[in-house]
Design a protein that fits this description.
This protein is 7% helix and 21% strand. The strands form 22 sheets. Strands 3, 27, 28, 29 and 30 form a 5-stranded antiparallel sheet that branches. The chain has a 4-stranded antiparallel sheet with strand order 5-6-7-10, with no helix packed on it. A 4-stranded antiparallel sheet has the order 11-12-13-14, with no helix packed on it. Helix 8 packs antiparallel against helix 9. 42% of the residues are buried.
């Protein structure tokens, strides 16, 4: 440890002070309170905001990206109001559907109404001296020309893309500053860069215009995905301009590009390119035009498709504007212009468009030059689109040069050369809702300027424009307009050709707190002066003048720089002036003045000023108190309205006067009837649209009521006539002091409100003014006014003081008001006027004071609107910060963005805290850095002294839940913790670290490494490595056992060493099992011991209850417990052991003498009937012969007791007396019978029968042919079964019952030729070729014989033809129908016919002539003739067979009265045609979806009909139609299946979350604080939040703790609220940590973390006795007491009383006197000291004093000499030699001890410096590094962290 001793006491004091500051600042800043925001960050969009898109999602509470606004308290992130996406392509906050130009962020919604008339309310606070990007010098300026702004990287701010020479660059916007440009692409001849979302994918793309090309660079974020040449030409023209629009109305941006010819030929050319609306961007050329100087795409007719405007350059001052109306289809524009306009100029150089007068129609601004009067003049004209004015035809007026107020209005440039512009943009530059014009300079000296839209009386009237601001840019300038710094105002980036890029920020506004000027003191009779006045430009010099009036009018003319004369520059006398107004009423270019009081008078302005006397008194009414100017008769000339305050008791009237331009006088136009007057006092008069008809109404305020006279409108003789109504709307509830009131939309609801002042300030809210809100508690005020003084878009209430109070400004909060500013002198301010007095573009406050000077308080720049002027704001673009006390770049506001946690001490920490000391530069503050001198480590989760971070080489396989990250500094060693959640590094993580991610199983011995893993005891010592910790292992050295539950000496693990089979029962068995009960002590447990009471019978191996000793079969179970086979198995229970049982499974058999498998027991199962014959065992038929065919004496007929032998094996037995005995025993045969001549049979079995006719061959006349004949032959064929064989039967196929009598034909007469019985039946005995005639038709059957019969089966008796065929056998027409049945004998061959032989085309069996459906085989009959068949199973069967009908949908052929296809019986609407389906079929169905309109919930949507959940969404597209959703958004799928549909599920992809009531992005299930959006998690579960910036923020989020002071949620062992890190007494035992540690020795150690480990402290002074210089606390040091002989451990014994009971001494202290207590600064006077001096040999020390002094001086000289040698040493090797010298001096006491320490300290410092210079790289000094205490010198060693032992 190095010890530095200050040179003097002052340095000591300074050092101590610095250390104290460090400690105090750290303790003060470790916790800060963040207030909650008053309002929602993203309020729901409703009502008139429906065209807005949702603002970007904000990360509320994350001070890294945002903070809480210093002024409003709202969350701020510096993002745009909206980020570009597919619904808002230009990111202007207006959805594409409502956006005039969805590719232009500066053009607002299509229509924005003006409740009270639109007029300019403020000026843009533009920086004249533009800021240059920091990279301007390095980057250069040559070749700069074009660029654009857009959110390229999607972070919510606008980036810059620009071209320089042939390169396109991208400059990222970070907190309002453009970073060094990065190259995007290289393109030649860049002339134009535009950022548009060409493919509508939410990413901006780049359209680059070059001399010969237009190229598309498709972007994905900041990366170019592709480059496409949309136009690429090789010669001729050079491209100059490109404009954008939507030509075809498809929502995709199109463009037109213009090129100019390099010579006279070819001419200029315009390319019209239409976006193909594809995800892969491409464009098609729609049309080309020639000869255009400039081009414009604008939707003039409001049809959603842009029209084309071209201009040409001529020399005869008739420049033509040609308008081509969009045709609505390709090629979109005609060759012939729809309209041509002569502008009277030689050239129109630039054009732009916008809705300047809020009538919903696009107007055009043109920049042209060369009129007939001046060829060098350039003018700006705004051409108002007449399409926005009712009753007008056409779009643009073709008259130029007429009076202002018509459709074409010339811009007033006030001698500024802005008419000729290099670029033009349209944007609202001053936040008043009106579009202004921004021009880019054309040369070094011309200006980039803003031309303000001054407003218009009501939408549709022409707007007026004036030059407002300008600055030189240094060359031809592209002026790009957008909000760069996120303060809600459009800024200008000027990109000049050949000059640096300039950034002009549009700054916010605040008020100074001091009065800048008091001037214009009253110079007239003060008794008549009440402080009334006005501010106006009275002499037309462009400067504001001060007008004070009472009895006289005094004008103090200003010079624009707050210079005013002390006396009036102009004065005229009137008799009492109550109000005054300045206006150029007669439009002669000079300001006129009207004053009112007792009468109304006008003085016409001129080049020489005003006349002292008035020029006209146009009213003589008295008590006139207010005057208002506006358009009453709409002649474009200002009119005057005034009214009386009071005329005795008769009330008062209001009057309107118009100026007659012919006579030059004002004439009364309207006067309110006296009947409508009131006796109340009137003061205020206003013109405002109170009923929303866009016409100004007249509001009169009285002290007892308010009156509203509505503007009326009528057409008289074609002229438009307007006036005020006679009958007012009277508001009797509106009260005000003296009738003073203000009319404005105070609460921003779109309706005008009325604000009055009485004893309180009251707001009556429109539109009915019945609701009021009183703002009481304000100091007395003279007057009030409303103004957006800070330019934040909201009105403020400004109160003028009374009774010497300051002026105050209040914000309206919705429910009340909140003071935001006090200022000015303590005067009585009668009136406050808001004007820009010093011409800096910022409005100032002018105090008109009673009887005193006018005070002016200047407005100042406040870019970020935080209420702190830029000159005092160290963070001018960040409204959440303004102060940085320690200059470390982090703001002091604890709730602001990048808040400084140590605001009074320089630091550069960024991780745990921002702006705190961080000596090792790792981003973690020293206070929270466990390794504050190691740049690679900062956290030690398990407190084992090794950091969590790890080298990259160790990252592979590292568990994901472990804390830490890769060591960031590769140049430093990275000592790391191998197990960052395990103190003893045994692989088991510590349970105390579960909040930090430690996982189970936890370490049960966290501070002793071990391998145990069993018995729920992990990480403890396990000597036998069996997984069981020694502390629970009964066998710590035997790894197969660890427990002995029953204590019998056998381990519970049965498979282990001496494993206990009965681990829960004490036992000593050792033979069968270890450790089981053994009652007979035979070593066999009771479990297996057959008789545990008998030591001789231990086992029954086969478990048959028969002990092995007496068991004849000891290894086989048996149910035989007695007998010769005792203990042997008897499976079938027949009492015979299996070993002696021939049938062990059959209880009915047990013996088998012949061994054939069949038992000998006749009553048993399957008994053996042949017990001595093993080949036979059964005899089924009981004939004594065995059934086994292979056995002895086998029975061939086992089921026939009469037969048993069959010698020939033919199945017939050989026993003659048996059944079916065999007649031929030696010859197998199948015969069964013999036939007798009379037809009877005789049984005859077993003989041969070849023909198988059952007749033995020996008795068969036809043995080879089966037969049944028996009359003539036996068993021969007999076809007709008449017993006569066929060969002898003349009629073999005709049965003859009398054949046996010779009567073959059954005619009762014997045939004449019986001889056939011998010769055979020959029907044709004389014809040898025929002999048989089967059908008896006379034609022989032999087809080869004579006259063969062609029809062998002719019916009997039928007539035949020459072929032997009957008509029933002939088909002459071959149609398949025989002649006798064929009714159509001549049918053509092959034609289909019916059964009658007639044509049947559909082959349904019905001839065509009879078939109603000849082509339909399923139908043939139609009784009712309605075209539907009667066959119900056929095609289109008639449902009403007997009734003709036309129905065809539900039934066929039934009556259909309404002709809709549904039958009347099935038609729910039989007389109303309709085509709906069931249940209301046949009813009207407009959308043809099958559902009747009467039940179709969506009758015009063919895709929907049912809405099951009644949510307004049809079931087809309602994916959860059974769940009712809200009225506007239908539910969708439940993607995460958590039971909450996606429309209501805040987390549709997270099944564990569905609601988020506080909207913080964290679900309520896991959100520890579900109702507080700023906090949500508590990682260490100690009740303190992980998130920064909240009252509950956990300063130690990874360590559970209960601290509640300075650092919340940190370890606090003694529960005193103080975190251990800052607690000087961590364990709360009364002894400081340092003292406990210092009191420790090698023998005893005191733990500062343990309250029970406390060193002795006798006197209770918190100083341990071992360290206490006054142990007993008696006031006398121990050394003194020891020296004097008193007891230093006894408070009652002191040096003053050791020589008596009374004190015998005292101390004298100079300046304080005598004390009875010890004082080190005093001189002791006591008996003790005298005795001490005497007894200490006083004289001897006096003698050696000179020697002592000499020695001391010598030591001092040695110290100084060595110190000088060290300081001058430059060589490291020599320095090491000095170390030995220093050690020698110290050890031999050649120098004082303190000098030795200082020399050692000096040596180490010099050595360290030499080492750092040699080995370590230099560390660059941080920006803002003061070199002071931020380096961390003197940082105390942090207190040890809490450790659980």
């Amino acid at each position: 440890m190095l010890i530095s001793k200050p040179d003097d006491e002052n340095k000591t004091t300074i050092a101590r002070g610095l250390v104290l500051m460090l400690l105090l600042s750290s303790m003060m800043q470790v916790f800060t309170l963040i207030p909650e925001s008053d309002g929602e960050v993203n309020p729901e969009i409703t009502g008139n905001e429906k065209w807005l898109v949702q603002a970007p999602t904000l990360d509320t509470g994350n001070l890294k990206v945002g903070g809480y606004h210093l002024k409003t308290g709202d969350w701020w992130e510096g993002k745009l109001d909206a980020i570009p996406d597919v619904n808002d392509l230009d990111g202007d906050g207006v959805s594409n559907n409502y956006d005039n130009e969805f590719w232009n962020p500066n053009i607002p919604a299509k229509f924005v109404d003006c409740a009270a008339g639109c007029h300019k309310t403020s000026s843009a606070n533009m920086e004249d001296n533009a800021a240059l990007p920091s990279w301007t010098v390095d980057f250069g300026v040559n070749g700069l020309r074009t660029g654009d702004l857009g959110d390229i990287d999607g972070d919510g701010d606008l980036d810059l893309v620009f071209a320089k020479s042939s390169t396109i660059y991208f400059s990222e916007n970070i907190q309002g500053e453009f970073q060094y440009p990065a190259t995007l692409a290289m393109l030649n001849s860049n002339k134009g860069i535009s950022l548009k979302d060409v493919d509508n994918d939410g990413d901006l793309d780049i359209l680059a215009l070059g001399n010969k090309f237009v190229k598309l660079l498709e972007m994905q974020g900041t990366t170019i995905q592709s480059t496409t040449a949309l136009i690429d030409i090789s010669s001729g023209i050079l491209f100059r301009d490109i404009v954008f629009g939507d030509i075809n109305g498809d929502g995709f941006v199109d463009f037109a590009a213009r090129g100019s010819a390099s010579g006279s030929s070819p001419p200029d050319e315009v390319y019209i390119m239409v976006n193909d609306a594809s995800s892969t961007p491409s464009f098609s050329s729609a049309k080309n035009y020639s000869e255009s100087e400039t081009i414009l795409l604008v939707d003039l007719d409001n049809n959603g498709k842009d029209d084309l405007v071209l201009s040409s350059w001529t020399n005869n001052f008739n420049d033509g504007l040609s308008f081509y109306q969009n045709s609505g289809s390709s090629p979109w524009f005609s060759n012939t212009a729809t309209k041509n306009i002569d502008t009277g100029m030689s050239i129109t150089q630039k054009m732009a468009h916008g809705d300047f007068n809020h009538d919903g129609a696009e107007d055009i601004v043109i920049f042209g030059g060369g009129t007939q009067s001046s060829t060098s003049t350039y003018d700006i004209w705004v051409m108002h689109n007449k399409n926005g004015t009712p009753g007008n035809s056409g779009y643009l007026e073709d008259t130029f040069g007429g009076p202002n107020g018509q459709y074409n209005v010339k811009v007033e440039l006030n001698n500024h050369a802005s008419g000729y512009a290099y670029s033009v943009s349209v944007a609202d530059m001053n936040g008043d809702g009106l579009l202004d014009i921004v021009t880019g300079a054309t040369s070094d000296l011309s200006e980039t300027s803003i031309i303000y839209n001054m407003g218009f009386p009501k939408p549709g009237n022409s707007a007026v424009f004036e030059y407002g601001w300008g600055t030189t840019s240094g060359g031809k300038t592209t002026a790009v307009v957008s909000d760069i710094d996120g303060n809600g105002r459009s800024d200008i980036v000027a990109i000049p050709d050949g000059a640096p890029i300039k950034i002009h920020l549009n700054r916010g506004i605040s008020l100074d707190s001091n009065v800048a000027l008091s001037t214009a003191s009253p110079v007239f009779n003060v008794n008549n002066y009440w402080g009334y006045g006005e501010v106006a430009d009275t002499n037309d010099d462009g400067h504001q003048d001060i007008i004070r009036f009472g009895s006289d009018v005094n004008i103090f003319q200003g010079d624009g720089g707050l210079g005013f004369n002390s006396t009036p520059d102009w004065k005229f006398t009137n008799s009492g002036v109550n109000d005054i107004i300045f206006e150029d009423f007669n439009r002669d270019g000079f300001t006129d003045v009207i004053d009112i009081g007792n009468g109304a008078r006008i003085r016409w302005g001129s080049a020489t000023g005003f006349n002292n006397s008035y020029d006209q008194q146009f009213s003589t009414d008295s008590n006139l108190y207010d005057i208002s100017v506006g358009m009453v008769n709409y002649d474009a000339i200002p009119d005057v309205i005034l009214h009386q305050a009071k005329v005795s008791s008769t009330g008062k009237v209001a009057s309107a006067f118009i100026l007659n331009m012919s006579s030059g006088d004002f004439e009364e136009y309207w006067v309110s009837p006296e009947t409508n007057s009131t006796t109340g006092t009137a003061r205020s008069l206003h013109l405002a649209d109170m009923n929303g008809d866009r016409r100004p109404d007249l509001v009169r305020c009285f002290d007892n009521q308010a009156q509203i006279f509505n503007m009326t409108f009528s057409q008289i003789s074609g002229d438009r006539v307007t006036n005020f109504s006679n009958e007012p709307m009277t508001l009797t509830n509106v009260k005000s002091t003296y009738g003073a009131c203000y009319v404005e939309d105070v609460n921003d609801d779109g309706n005008l409100d009325i604000l009055t002042k009485t004893s309180a300030i009251t707001l009556y809210t429109g539109p009915d003014f019945s609701t009021s809100n009183n703002f009481g508690g304000l100091p007395s005020t003279w007057s009030i006014t409303l103004n957006d003084i800070d330019d934040d878009g909201k009105l403020e209430l400004i109160t003028a003081s009374q009774s010497s109070k300051q002026t105050s400004i209040y914000d309206f909060t919705g429910t009340g008001i909140s003071k935001v500013w006090d200022g000015g002198y303590y005067r009585d301010t009668i009136k406050i006027i808001v004007k820009d007095m010093d011409e800096d573009g910022i409005r100032d406050l002018v105090h008109m004071n009673k009887l005193q000077s006018v005070d002016i308080i200047l407005g100042v720049s406040d870019t970020d609107y935080d209420g702190v002027k830029d000159s005092s704001d160290l963070f001018p673009n960040n409204p959440t910060q303004s102060i940085d006390s320690d200059s470390d770049g982090f703001g002091d506001s604890s709730t602001g963005m990048l808040a400084d946690a140590c605001p009074y001490y320089w630091g550069d920490s960024t991780e745990d805290r921002r702006g705190c000391p961080d000596q090792d530069g790792d981003g973690w503050s020293d206070l929270n850095d466990d390794f504050w001198r190691d740049g690679n480590q900062w956290n030690d989760t398990d407190l084992d002294g090794y950091g969590d971070n790890y080298p990259a080489a160790s990252s592979s396989g590292r568990p994901s839940h472990w804390p830490g990250e890769v060591c960031p500094d590769g140049g430093l060693p990275c000592s790391f913790d191998s197990y960052p959640l395990d103190w003893d590094d045994d692989g088991y993580e510590d349970s105390t670290l579960s909040p930090q991610g430690a996982v189970t199983p936890y370490d049960d011995c966290p501070f002793s490494a071990g391998t145990s893993s069993e018995g729920d005891t992990y990480g403890c010592l396990d000597s036998d490595i069996d997984g069981w910790a020694n502390v629970i292992d009964t066998y710590p050295t035997q790894n197969s056992q660890h427990n002995d539950t029953d204590g019998d000496g056998f381990g519970d693990n049965e498979s282990g060493w001496l494993g206990d089979h009965c681990p829960n029962d004490f036992g000593l068995s050792v033979i069968d099992y270890y450790g089981c009960l053994d009652n007979d002590n035979d070593g066999v447990s009771y479990l297996t011991d057959l008789d545990d009471s008998n030591p001789f019978e231990q086992s029954d191996t086969d478990n048959d209850t028969v002990g092995d000793n007496g068991d004849l079969c000891p290894y086989q179970w048996s149910n035989l417990t007695s007998g010769p086979d005792r203990g042997c198995p008897d499976s079938d229970g027949d009492l015979r052991a299996d070993r002696n049982d021939a049938f062990p499974t059959d209880a009915t058999q047990w013996f088998d003498a012949d061994g054939d498998g069949y038992g000998d027991e006749p009553l048993g199962n399957q008994p053996d009937e042949f017990t001595s014959d093993p080949t036979q065992w059964t005899d089924t038929d009981g004939d004594g012969m065995g059934d086994n065919p292979n056995g002895n004496n086998a029975d061939a007929f086992p089921y026939d007791s009469t037969q048993w032998n069959d010698k020939d094996g033919d199945g017939y037995g050989d026993q003659n007396n048996g059944n079916e005995s065999d007649k031929c025993k030696d010859e197998a045969g199948s015969s069964k019978q013999r036939l007798i001549g009379d037809g009877s049979t005789i049984e005859w079995y077993g003989c041969a029968d070849v023909d198988f006719d059952l007749v033995p061959d020996i008795y068969d006349d036809c043995s080879n042919t089966a037969g049944t004949s028996f009359l003539d032959r036996i068993a021969c064929p007999d076809s007709d079964n008449d017993a006569v064989s066929d060969m002898n039967d003349p009629y073999p196929y005709e049965f003859s019952s009398n054949a046996s009598d010779g009567d073959w034909d059954n005619d009762s007469y014997a045939d004449m030729r019986p001889v056939f019985m011998m010769n055979g039946p020959d029907i044709f005995p004389d014809d040898s070729s025929q002999w048989q005639d089967f059908d008896g038709d006379g034609f022989g059957d032999n087809q080869s014989g004579n006259n063969p019969d062609m029809c062998l089966n002719t019916p009997s008796q039928a007539s035949v033809n020459e072929l032997g065929c009957a008509s029933s056998e002939i088909d002459d027409d071959s149609d398949g129908v025989m002649n006798d049945a064929d009714l159509c004998a001549n049918t053509e061959r092959g034609e289909p016919v019916d059964s009658s032989g007639c044509l049947d085309g559909d082959e349904d069996g019905v001839a065509n002539t009879q078939d109603s459906f000849p082509d339909d085989s399923s139908q043939w009959s139609d009784i009712d003739g309605d075209g539907y068949g009667d066959n119900q199973t056929g095609t289109e069967a008639d449902a009403c067979v007997s009734v003709s009908g036309t129905s065809r949908t539900d039934r066929l052929g039934c009556v259909d009265s309404d002709g809709d296809g549904y039958s009347d019986q099935g038609d729910q609407c039989p007389n109303l045609p309709g085509w709906s389906s069931a249940p209301y079929q046949g009813c009207p169905d407009r959308d043809s979806d099958g559902f009747a309109d009467v039940i179709d919930l969506f009758p015009d949507d063919s895709n929907e009909s049912i809405d099951s959940d009644g949510d307004g969404f049809g079931d087809n597209n309602d994916t959860c139609f059974s769940i009712e959703a809200n009225a506007t958004v239908d539910c969708v799928n439940d993607r995460d299946n958590d039971g909450f549909n996606d429309s209501s599920d805040v987390f549709p992809d997270d099944a564990s979350e569905w609601s988020d009531q506080d909207g913080d992005g964290y679900g309520d299930n896991s959100d520890v604080w579900p109702s507080q959006s700023e906090i949500w998690s508590d990682g260490d579960k100690d009740g303190w939040a992980d998130q920064y910036g909240h009252i509950l923020t956990d300063d130690c989020p990874s360590i559970p703790g209960r601290s509640s002071k300075f650092m919340m949620g940190c370890s606090d062992i003694d529960d005193d609220g103080m975190p251990d890190l800052l607690d000087p007494d961590i364990d709360g035992d009364g002894i400081t940590n340092d003292n406990e540690m210092d009191a420790s020795t090698d023998l005893i150690e005191y733990d500062p973390f343990d309250a029970n480990s406390t060193p002795p402290d006798m006197d209770g002074d918190s100083i341990p006795d071992v360290m206490d210089k006054d142990t007993d606390g008696d006031g006398f040091p121990n050394d003194m007491e020891k020296e004097r002989g008193s007891d230093h451990e006894d408070t009652n014994k002191t040096p003053f009383n050791i020589y008596g009971d009374q004190d015998t001494g005292l101390f004298y202290v100079p300046g304080e006197g005598f004390k009875s207590q010890y004082d080190p600064n005093g001189m002791e006077i006591s008996v003790s000291v005298v005795l001490d001096m005497v007894t200490s040999e006083f004289l001897i020390p006096m003698l050696i004093l000179p020697l002592t002094m000499f020695a001391l001086l010598a030591k001092g000289r040695r110290y100084k000499k060595m110190k000088k040698r060290l300081e001058t040493c430059k060589d490291a090797d020599i320095l090491l030699e000095f170390e030995k010298d220093i050690d020698t001096l110290i050890m031999k006491k050649k120098v004082k001890v303190e000098h030795g320490m200082l020399l050692r300290n000096l040596f180490e410092r010099i050595r360290d410096k030499m080492g750092e210079a040699k080995d370590k790289p230099s560390i660059p000094k941080r920006s803002g590094d003061s070199g002071g205490p931020s380096q961390g010198h003197g940082r105390p060693t942090p207190a040890p962290k809490e450790r659980s032992w």
